[in-house]
Amino acid sequence: MIDHSLVKRFRQEVGDRLAHQRRIDQANGLPTMTGEDERQFARALISQVLEEHARSEIGLGRTPPTVEEEEALAAGIHAALFGVGRLQPLLDDPEVENIDINGCDKVFVSYADGQELTREPVAETDEELIELIQILAAYSGLSSRPFDTANPQLDLRLPDGSRLSAVMDVTVKPAVSIRRARLGKVFLSDLVGNNTISPEIGRFLSAAIGARKNIMIAGSTNAGKTTLLRALANEIMPSERLITVERALELGLDQFAELHPNVVAFEQRLPNSEGQGEISMAELVRRSLRMNPSRVIVGEVLGDEIVTMLNAMTQGNDGSLSTIHANSSMEVFNRIATYALQARERLPIEATHMLIAGAIDFVVFIEKRNDYHRGGSLRRYVSSIREVNGCDGRVLSSEVFAPGPDGSGLPHAPISCMEELAAYGYNPGGW
């Protein structure tokens, strides 16, 4: 067990010395330390502070920390400075899937095998938990994001790519949910390997990306939509220029220059305390069209940006991708129509369905099932793929892959654009 009061104290001390060194370097006209240089310097400062602490304990006639205790303290201080404090061990565990925190002392962790366990507190008090989130909000993303009484909601991406959502003052205790990015650099072959998709669906999706089909990925919360979106994006040729638009940076396609050397990542900007400076998702999608994109990727559609995105898909930006919450592949069309009613264009349902028919080529539905109570584990799989065929008062579509006996998608109906897909290597059996 780590003495977290010592970690907090030493974090402050090391942070002060680090800030002092920055001021000295600036005064002497020296270049700003890179992130890695700063981490290396911080490690030296941590060793220095721990050595001073050991000498002080000996001087007071007390037993200094053991080598193991010093190593644990050093890791805790470093995590508090550059990571997420006492959350770091959970984020370092590759098997952790999601972390839910209801106040500082109630921590629930779900694992990749479907287990859900309680863990030790991540802060001494709710105030300390809020302070940790505020620090993360100040340094994550492209701009500082407030988290206080006036701004009680927060969404951001952690340094490891995980998604954090937090609320305060609208709940009895501050509540935090962290959804892990366990597969950052993921390919369709990885999803075939873990049975999320069948080899045939993998070949189909690869061909659909090559043929520049517009694809909407649908599913429930935590079904694996973002992971599938990353895998599809990694099928795009490195020569293409990608623009990503997100509420909070999450996809991280720009982190893999060997796969996507030409990426611009847009992040929604929230209004400041005076209610000014907001840049909405819809505005960012419109702006992305002026940035010479080969494809536009919208991380998640949750509102009025849907009309702008559908317009983008019909204006020559073929091959665009996005995700949306829905309970089935068919429900996606009604969900889009609902969002379109909220947009400033106030599109009626009939007009929205015409826009959908001209914009979206395929809807891919991914779902999850908890089988661990029957001796299995949490399972994610693509169960349905629907092709949009046109509009006749409503969206016309056919389910080209439908759920089989185990729920996974199997070929079900002919694909109208088969010749285009065949040009990119897709040759299905039976059609």
Automatic annotation (TrEMBL):
Q: Which SUPFAM superfamilies match?
A: P-loop containing nucleoside triphosphate hydrolases (SSF52540)
Spell out the InterPro entries in the cross-references: P-loop_NTPase, T2SS/T4SS_dom, T4SS_GSP_E_ATPase
| Similarity comment: family membership | Belongs to the GSP E family.
Which GO molecular function entries does the Swiss-Prot or TrEMBL record give?
ATP hydrolysis activity; kinase activity
Q: Which PANTHER family match?
A: TWITCHING MOTILITY PROTEIN PILT (PTHR30486), TYPE IV PILUS RETRACTATION ATPASE PILT (PTHR30486:SF6)
What Gene3D superfamilies does the entry give? 3.30.450.380, P-loop containing nucleotide triphosphate hydrolases
Q: Does the keyword Ribonucleoprotein apply?
A: no
Q: Name one Pfam family in it.
A: T2SSE
Print the keywords alphabetically: Kinase, Transferase
**Limits of the Bacterial type II secretion system protein E domain:** 89-348
- The protein's name is Protein kinase
